[in-house]
Structure formats: C-alpha cells, structure tokens
Design brief:
The chain has an eight-stranded mixed β-sheet, with helices on both faces. The protein has 14 helices and 16 strands. Helix 1 (16-35) runs antiparallel to helix 5 (138-154), helix 2 (49-56) packs across helix 4 and helix 5 (138-154) runs parallel beside helix 9. It has 419 residues and is an alpha+beta fold. The protein folds into two domains: 16-169 and 228-316, 2-Layer Sandwich (BirA Bifunctional Protein, domain 2); 329-418, Rossmann fold. The structure holds histidyl-adenosine monophosphate (HAM). Histidyl-adenosine monophosphate (HAM) binds next to strand 6, strand 10, strand 11 and helix 10.
C-alpha cells in the first residue's frame, strides 16, 4: 500500500548516494560528446502539443496513448516532453541548421511517457541524447553510432548488441508499403485491434507492435528494405560499409522500424543482455521533421539512451560506482565559545574550497562523533575551552584513527595539502 513518502507510480527519488552514479554517467556523456564537437542544449520540459503530434507522428504509440497533455491558462494544449528530438528541432528551426549548416547538440534530462511501469520502464525517465542537425551524409549516421558505442564503452556498458536497419526515404517506400499491406491484409483478422487501424493508416507501425498475437505475422513479413529504391539502399550500404571499416559490429534487423514516425534512412537500437524485459538501452537514427511554423523539413541524425537502463546495466556488469564523498573535516565544538570559533573557522575553510560540517547547536562529544561517522568525515577537529587557551587542538584522521595536535591556524594548510 502506497504511503505518503512514495512518489507517483513510475517515478522515483534519487538520493545523494545514488546521484553520484548518475553524475558519473552524465560526466562521461559530456566528456565523450565534447570530443566529437557537441555542445549542450536545454529546451523546455513541455512544448505545444502539436510539436509532438506533428514531430513523432499521430499514429505512434507515444502520441496516441502515452503523452501527458494539459491545457495552459489560455486554453492551449501543452505536453510534457515524451522525448527530446522534437523540442530540439523546434529550437533549432530558428537557426542556420535550416540552411544546411551542421549543428551538434546534446541534452540530458527527464522525459515523460504514460506507460505501464515495470523494471526499466518509467513514466518519468531520463535520457542522454544527441542530435546532429542540418546535414545529410552516411558518414554522419555512422559517426553518431560510433560515438554512442564510445560512450557506452566509456561507462562500462560494453557488451551491447547493435541492431541496424533502414527506413529509406518516403519517396522510395511505396513498393515496400504495398508489399506489407498485401502480406498483412489476409491475416489482419487474427491481429490486434490497433494493427487493424494501422493497416489502413500507417502499415509500418504494425512492424513495431508488441502484442503477442501479432508477432508471428510480423516475423513472416517481407523484408521491406530490400524493396526500397536504389538511392535508399545505396545510402544504407554506405553506412554499413563505414561501420565495418571502423570495426563496429552490427546485426541488420529487417523488422526494426523504431517507435517514432520521423525516421528516414538509418535506424538503430542497442540492446543489452544485462537488462531483463526492457532491453533497449538506446535507440536512434536519421530523421526529417516538418514542425508547425517551418516552411520546410529539417533533417538530422541522433540517438537517446535511457539513464535508468544504463545504470541498471552498470549494476549488472558490476561496474564500481563512485562513493558519496564525506566532508574534508567535521568540527567538534565543546562549549559555546568553541562553537562560535568553529563557525568562523568553517566559514574561512569553505571560502577556500574545503568542505566542512559542524553542528548548528551545542551537542555532546559523543553525539558529534556519531554525526562525523555518519557523514563519513575524513577528519575530525576537536575544539574545547583548553584548546582555545593553548591555541592547539587535536586533528583526527578517520581512515586510520591517527591523531595529532596542531596549531589552530595551521588547519587550513593541512587540509589543503590533503585534497
Ligand atoms: P526511444 O527509443 O523512444 O527514442 O527512447 C530512447 C531510449 O530511452 C530507449 O532506448 C530507452 O533506453 C529509454 N526509454 C524510453 N522509454 C522509456 C521508459 N518509459 N522508461 C525508461 N527508459 C525509457 C527516442 O526517444 C528518440 N528521441 C531518440 C532519437 C534521438 N532519435 C533520433 N534522435
């Protein structure tokens, strides 16, 4: 039974001891993406609803069933972002990316989808994503994939499987679409209700259906990519060739269409055996978006990885997580005079970049030592009446319990040398 301390289903609190692992993964993302010339972009958590409807496609599962949509005070429909690409494209549509200038951006932050929560599937989850916007070239698709692999190896999430496919370009899809319709039409009676709609409205979405009753029919579908025109196939061949040249292993998965409708050409997904059911740790591809207010589509290639899933993989792979660092020193005060002096010492130390903890009020020696332990302080400095008179006090190193008496005014120097 839910208590008041529990957050809504499918969301979670991240406490300081866990946040250091999040930070380690985020720092690695920033480091790696910087190596490839990407800069950070921060877009709003919510957008006008039509950005996602037009961007991701009205027939997608995300738009149909999973968006958190509400009205603002003026009656306009807003939606909590279910993914990052559409908002980034909206932001970049006012820039030179529209004129074919390459823009490289990455983002890290929360996304929202009203899915049924399970291990690795959340309603508020976090993505690290990148978008290379403005240019079309197979080498850019390949580089995006290579950078994702680089990042995953960097955080100890190697051992993934890279699945690759092509969606071709819309102008090239007609014969493949006809073949898919021909395949599914006689079987549609035994497929799910959503697929019946998809047959009419967007047959590609059937390939992404997760319903048990549809799987055998999907597995027997023709390989659509082989029916694309030559320009789509040549583009894909080049992407595969570059990846092979760079020794990046991949498996071509002809049924991979991805859950969003904006993809053209290359699509990819990375799975990891370290995860259970929700085994996609990242996905992406090349896309073309024509958002409200744009006079022509903007193109790009990118990916997003799920932070929660990356952390689960790290745990499964037993990657050591960084520990939350305790303060450099805990100041123990014995008496009001000592507490007042320690407050001044604390202010000085903190200004010079040394982390300090001390009690807000007078407490017993025992209780202060307990706090120092609990906070994992690296040193304890003990100040009482007699220490104030003598100008000397004990500094205890918690790792080995060793103690030494030091002049009060040498504390800062000693702690600085330890850092
Ligand atoms: P996506 O495949 O929908 O793609 O999501 C990317 C990743 O986000 C997934 O592989 C998964 O790790 C994580 N994820 C998605 N939904 C959930 C959830 N409910 N709970 C936990 N993790 C989840 C996109 O979002 C595209 N915008 C990626 C992209 C960027 N394509 C081009 N550029």
């Amino acid at each position: 039974m839910a208590t008041n301390s529990q957050p809504p289903p499918g969301t979670g609190d991240i406490f300081p001891a866990e946040a250091v692992s999040w930070r380690a993964v985020e720092d690695a993302a920033r480091r790696v993406f910087n190596l490839y010339g990407y800069g950070e972009i921060r877009t709003p958590i919510f957008e006008f609803t039509e950005i996602f409807q037009r961007g991701l496609g009205n027939e997608t599962e995300v738009v149909q069933k999973e968006m958190y949509t509400f009205e603002d005070r003026g009656g306009r429909s807003l939606t909590l972002r279910p993914e990052g690409t559409a908002g980034v494209m909206r932001a970049l549509s006012g820039t030179d990316a529209m004129n074919g200038v390459e823009n490289r951006v990455y983002y890290i932050g929360p996304m929202f989808r009203g899915e049924r929560p399970s291990a690795g599937r959340r309603r508020q989850f976090h993505q690290v994503g990148v978008e290379n916007v403005g240019r079309v070239a197979p080498a850019l698709d390949a580089e995006s994939i290579a950078m994702l692999c680089h990042f995953l190896n960097e955080i100890g999430a190697g051992g993934f499987k890279l699945l690759l496919n092509t969606r071709g370009v819309p102008a090239d899809r007609k014969p493949a679409e006809d073949a898919l319709r021909e395949h599914f039409a006689p079987r549609i009676g035994s497929m799910c209700e959503d697929c019946r709609m998809r047959l009419e409205r967007n047959v590609w979405r059937i390939l992404d259906c997760k319903q048990e009753q549809c799987q055998a029919h999907i597995a027997a579908a023709p390989d659509a990519a082989s029916l694309f025109g030559s320009s789509s196939r040549e583009y894909f061949d080049q992407v595969c060739q570059i990846l092979s040249d760079w020794d990046i292993d991949f498996t071509i998965e002809p049924r991979l269409v991805r859950g969003l409708d904006y993809y053209v050409h290359t699509v990819f997904e990375l799975t990891h055996t370290g995860l259970g059911g929700q085994n996609a740790i990242a996905g992406g591809g090349r896309y073309e978006l024509n958002l409200p207010g744009m006079n022509r589509p903007v193109c790009g290639v990118g990916f997003a990885a799920g932070m929660e899933r990356l952390l689960m993989v790290r745990e499964a792979m037993k990657v050591p997580n960084p520990e939350l660092q305790g303060p450099a020193v805990y100041l123990v005060s014995l008496g009001a005079q000592a507490l007042s002096t320690n407050r001044k010492i604390a202010a000085r130390l903190r200004r010079s970049g040394i982390s300090v903890m001390l009690e807000a009020e007078e407490k017993s020696m025992k209780s202060q030592m307990r706090s120092a332990d609990r906070l994992k302080a690296r040193n304890v400095f003990i100040l009482g009446e007699s220490e104030l008179t003598s100008g000397q006090a004990v500094l205890k190193r918690m790792a080995d319990g060793s103690q030494r008496t030091i002049p009060l005014d040498s504390l800062e120097e000693i702690l600085k040398n330890e850092q």
